[in-house]
Design brief:
Blueprint: H1 2-22, H2 29-63, H3 74-88, H4 91-103, H5 109-122, H6 125-133, H7 139-170, H8 172-183, H9 190-202, H10 208-234, H11 236-246, H12 250-264, H13 267-272, H14 275-279, H15 285-298, H16 300-310, H17 315-328, H18 335-349, H19 354-373
Helix pairs in contact: 2-4, 2-9, 2-10, 3-4, 3-5, 3-19, 4-5, 4-16, 4-17, 5-7, 5-8, 5-17, 6-7, 6-19, 7-15, 7-18, 8-17, 12-15, 15-18, 16-17
Length: 375
C-alpha cells in the first residue's frame, strides 16, 4: 500500500511538471509574422539612431563639451555607465551610446572603458525588477527568482573590479582600443547611408542637441523592442519550451544561452525570460548559471553590429565589452562556487523577502547615483 502511494505521488509530480512546461498554447502564425515585421522596423530604427547619434555627438561635442580623462574621475565614469544602464535597461545600448560619442571625439578612450565596465554591473537591474514583478505564491519562489539577478551580479562584480584596476593602472583596454582604431582602415557601409539619408536629411534643420536627444530615445526604444520582436517571431512560449528542454547540463546550457542571445540581441532579456520558469521550478538555477555565462558572450552580437554601423571609432567600446565577456568565461570552471555564493547571500545575508529585495534594488540605484553625481 505504501509503495503504491509513493509511486502515485511520483506519477503526479511528473505529470504536473509535464503540464507546467507545455500548458501554454502556441502563438498563432499571424502573430509571429507581425512580430517579424516589427523586428524589421526596430532594426531600422536602431541603425538610424546610431547614425544620428554619431553625427549629432560630433556637432554637440565641438561646441559644448568633451568628456576626457582630465575632467572626469574614473569612478564617476563607472557610475555614469551603471546609471545609464539602469535607465535604459540595456548595457548594449549604453555601450553603443559611448561608442558613438568616442567616435565623434566627445568621450575619451579611458572614460569609455570605465563607463562600459559600469554598464555591465547595471545590466543586472532588469532581472531584479522582474523577480519583484513576476507573481510568486511562496517566499521560496520569490527567492529563486531573485537568485537569477543575484547570480548575474555576482558574476559581474569580480570581472568589473579586475578590469577597473587593469585600466586604472595599466590602461590596457584603452590602449588596445587606440591601437585598433589607428591601425585598421576606415570603413563605411554605403547602404546604411542610403537607407537612412531621407530621414537624416529631413531633420537636419533641427539643432544638433535636439537630434542627439531624438537619437538617444530611438536607440533606447529600439534596443527595448528588438529582443521582444525576435522572441515574438519565434514564439515566446516556444522559446521557453526549448530552454526547458535543453537546459540539462553545463555545456548544453552554456551554448543554448550563447546562441539564443546572439539571435535575440539581449543578454538581460534572455536571462529574465527564465525567471518564470525558475519560479515554477521548471528550470534549476544550477543549470541557469552556465546559460547566463553563455548569454553574456552572445550579448556581444548587438554591440558588434553597433560597431559596424558607427565605424572604427567604436573599437574601444566593442573591445571592452568583448573582454568583459571573455574574462567571464572563467566562471565556467567555478559554477558550483558561484551557485554556493548566490545561495548563501540569498538565504543567510538577505533572508530574501519582497521587502529585502526592494531594499536591495533601492540600494543598487543609490550606489549608481552616488558614483555618478557625488564624485
Amino acid at each position: 500500500m505504501v509503495n503504491n502511494k509513493v509511486s502515485n505521488k511520483r506519477f503526479s509530480v511528473s505529470k504536473v511538471s509535464a503540464v507546467d512546461s507545455s500548458s501554454i498554447p502556441n502563438e498563432g502564425l499571424g502573430s509571429r509574422f507581425f512580430s517579424f515585421l516589427k523586428l524589421l522596423v526596430f532594426l531600422y530604427l536602431f541603425i538610424l539612431a546610431l547614425t544620428l547619434l554619431k553625427d549629432a555627438a560630433f556637432e554637440v561635442g565641438k561646441s559644448l563639451f568633451s568628456i576626457t580623462t582630465t575632467n572626469i574621475h574614473p569612478l564617476k565614469a563607472f557610475g555614469i555607465g551603471w546609471l545609464i544602464t539602469l535607465i535604459v535597461q540595456s548595457s548594449s545600448a549604453t555601450t553603443a551610446t559611448f561608442a558613438a560619442m568616442n567616435s565623434a571625439g566627445v568621450a575619451g578612450f579611458v572614460v569609455v572603458v570605465f563607463a562600459i565596465i559600469g554598464s555591465r554591473i547595471g545590466t543586472s537591474f532588469t532581472s531584479m525588477l522582474a523577480s519583484l514583478i513576476v507573481p510568486s505564491k511562496k517566499k521560496k519562489d520569490l527567492r529563486h527568482g531573485f537568485e537569477i539577478a543575484l547570480a548575474n551580479l555576482i558574476y559581474a562584480v569580480p570581472i568589473a573590479i579586475i578590469m577597473f584596476f587593469l585600466e586604472l593602472f595599466f590602461h590596457i583596454f584603452s590602449d588596445i582600443g587606440k591601437s585598433v582604431t589607428t591601425s585598421i582602415p576606415a570603413f563605411n557601409f554605403s547602404f546604411i547611408d542610403t537607407i537612412t539619408a531621407p530621414i537624416r536629411n529631413g531633420i537636419e534643420i533641427l539643432k544638433p542637441w535636439i537630434i542627439m536627444i531624438i537619437s538617444l530615445l530611438l536607440l533606447a526604444f529600439s534596443m527595448e523592442f528588438i529582443p521582444k520582436a525576435i522572441i515574438g517571431s519565434f514564439g515566446k512560449n516556444n522559446a521557453r519550451r526549448l530552454l526547458h528542454k535543453y537546459l540539462k547540463n553545463k555545456w548544453s546550457s552554456f551554448f543554448i544561452g550563447m546562441i539564443f542571445t546572439i539571435l535575440v540581441f539581449s543578454a538581460s532579456i534572455t536571462i529574465t525570460l527564465l525567471i518564470p520558469l525558475v519560479i515554477a521550478r521548471l528550470v534549476k538555477i544550477k543549470n541557469l548559471i552556465p546559460y547566463m555565462i553563455g548569454a553574456h558572450v552572445g550579448g556581444a552580437s548587438d554591440v558588434i553590429l553597433a560597431g559596424l554601423v558607427i565605424g572604427k571609432g567604436a573599437s574601444t567600446a566593442v573591445i571592452t565589452y568583448l573582454f568583459f565577456s571573455i574574462i567571464g568565461l572563467l566562471w565556467l570552471f567555478f559554477t558550483d562556487e558561484l551557485l554556493w555564493l548566490t545561495k548563501r547571500i540569498s538565504k543567510n545575508v538577505l533572508s530574501t523577502s519582497r521587502l529585502t529585495v526592494l531594499l536591495f534594488v533601492i540600494s543598487f540605484i543609490l550606489i549608481a547615483l552616488s558614483l555618478a553625481f557625488l564624485l
